[in-house]
Structure formats: C-alpha cells, structure tokens
Amino acid sequence: MSQLSTPTLLILGASSDVGRAIAHQYARHGYQIILAGRHPEEMEKSANDLRIRYRTEATAVYFDALDTSSHKDFYQSLESRPEGVVSVIGLLGDQDKGFEDFDHAEQIVTTNFTALISILNLVANDFKQRGSGFIIGVSSVAGERGRQSNFLYGSAKAGFTAYLSGLRNALYTHNIHVMTVNPGFIHTSMTEGMDLPGALTLEPEDVARDIYRAQQKKRNICYTGWYWRWIMLIIRTIPESVFKRLSL
Question: pLDDT tens-digit profile of 31-90?
Fold first, then answer.
C-alpha cells in the first residue's frame, strides 16, 4: 500500500484502554493513526510502539474534549485529515456525587454528550464536503434505559446515541458511514475496582476487534459483546411499573 493511499484514523480519547486497543487494531490493518487526548506524553509512547510494531505513521496530539472553543483550531491543525474518526471519550463519574453536586453532574453530561457534538459536528461537515469518511461513536448500553445506579451517565449516553442516529440519517446520502457502538462491561481503568460479572465482561482488545469488523461491514449499530443486544431487548421490555422496583 502506497503512502498516498494509506488511510488515516483519528482516535479521540486515545489514552483510554479501549482507545489504545482500537489504535492497534486499525494499525494492524494498514491505517495511519492520530492519537488525540489530554495525555500527549503517554500517547507518544503508544505512537512509538505503533510505528515500530506495524511500520505505520502514528502521531500523538493534545485534545481536550471539554475545551470546546479549541475544537475548530484542533481539527484544522491536523497535518493530515482523517478518513475515519473514532470517539472513545467517556466519563463514568460518581453517581452519588453528581446527584448532589451539579458541577460534577454537568461534567459527566458534557464529557459524554455535549462536548462530543462540538467535535463531531466539525468532522461531519468536513466529511460531507469531501463526500466520504466514517465516524464511530462509542456510546453504552447504559443509554438504553435509565437505572438508579448510573442515570446521569446513562442519560448522557442516551443523548449521544440519539445524536449518532440522527447524524447517520443526515449523512447517509453523502457517502458517510456513522456507527454507534454499545459496549457492555469492559475491564478498563475506568471500571477498576468494580464488581463486574466475569462471563459478561470483555477485554479492550475484544471490543476493538468487534468495532473493526462491524465498521468494515458498515453496521449501523455494534453491540460488543453481541449478547448485549438481547440482554437490552429484555431490559427495554420490562414494564415501568416493575422496572422501578428493581435494584439496578
């Protein structure tokens, strides 16, 4: 594959465990990688590993999702415009703290929803002008029904899921693929210390592999693992009169 024909993938939130796994998955399949996040020194180590391991171009750039005023300059400053963009940005936050402290609640909602609209609108308009590209947004099964244990995080993810659905509809005729990823439990630094069900919990590498395969097939929605599609179907069909009594 020649340098001119090598596609570039921009990963937003690339210092996360899933972000790093996605970088390896796409680099393995011939993509140049732009790692974007708030920890450039850490990401530069990942970029160097990608360059050595896969003999591809990889760079690390600073990006702060919460500083929405910087998004336009950030995107325009990229040395090469990407053919694909993946957002892995997310903040689980502290449900109890957010319930009492609006500043923390706002941080959860902004990180998981409104800040992503800012950067992905820029990407979408660029792709629309070029007539090609793909956008992958990592949402969550938590966005499919509000639960007492994480309704702040879940409501933000629900908004992000609806945004991606609308974006997919708006960009379809412009040859741009938009995919929503709904992961379940994942072993990451964000979930460290949580009592996760082993049989239903994936490693970041599993998630990255599912995402790549689904994107190559141009899926609209990717559940990872696949069984979450059926688990969430059951959860969505529980009557509200029953659901509100459950400790979920």
Answer: 999 999 999 999 999 999 999 999 999 999 999 999 999 999 999 999 889 999 999 999
- Whether 3 maps to a domain, the answer reads no
Within 10 Å of residue 133's Cβ, how many Cβ atoms?
A: 23
135, β-bridge pairs: 85, 178
CATH number of the domain at 100, please.
3.40.50.720
Query: Residue 153 burial by CB count (10 A; 0-12/13-18/19+): exposed, middle or buried?
Result: buried
Note the pTM of the prediction, 2 decimals.
0.92
Contact 113, 159 (CB under 8 A): yes
Strand order in the sheet with 133-138: 58-62, 32-37, 8-12, 84-87, 133-138, 176-183, 221-224
**Domain limits at 60?**
8-243
